[in-house]
Structures are given as structure tokens and as C-alpha cells.
Specification:
The protein is an all-alpha fold. It has one domain. The chain has helices at residues 2-50, 54-82, 88-104. Helix 1 (2-50) runs antiparallel to helix 2. It is elongated, with a radius of gyration of 23 Å. 0% of the residues are buried. InterPro entries: 2TM_dom.
Amino acid sequence: MEYAENIKLRKARRRVEALKGFYKHLLIYIIVNVALFIVRGRVLEFFQIESNDKNFMEWIDWNILIVPIFWGIGLLYHAAKVFQYKSKTLKNWEEKQIRKFLKEE
């Protein structure tokens, strides 16, 4: 019985570490993106004074806006992995495979 409890304890610790990692990732995402949006306004103001090149301004704007989008996709993937999200299709497939292998044996 002690061995089984030890395994459960290790699994629980791994899960807690994964949750901590996700929450750190989320916090950094929020801090960096809030800072980017604050800086975005300042940078655009600075460059509008120095340059009236509209293409350059759009380039800066798009680069600053694209960071949260792609990083957010990665963050969603991280959340799905940590919280063990599985779609219904994947669950149904797994159940079919388990039944199939049980019938074979």
C-alpha cells in the first residue's frame, strides 16, 4: 500500500508543478502584454513626431499586436496540456480503441 501512495504523491506533485508552471506563464503573459500596450502608445507618439511614414507606423502597430495573438495560442495549448483537456472526438476514439483491444484479448 505504501508504494501506491508514493506513486500517487509523485503524480500529485508533478501536477502541482505543472499548474505552477502554467500560472507563471499566464502571469508573465499578462505583464508583458500590458507593458507592450502601454509602450505601444508611447512608441507610436515618439515616431509620429520624428517620422510621418504611415507604413512604418502600421508595421510597428502590427508587430506589437501580433505578439499577444501568437503567444496566446501557445498559452491555450499550455492550458489544454496542464488541465488535460481532451475533445469529445479524442475521448470517443480512445474508448473505441480500448474496447477494440479488450475484444482482441
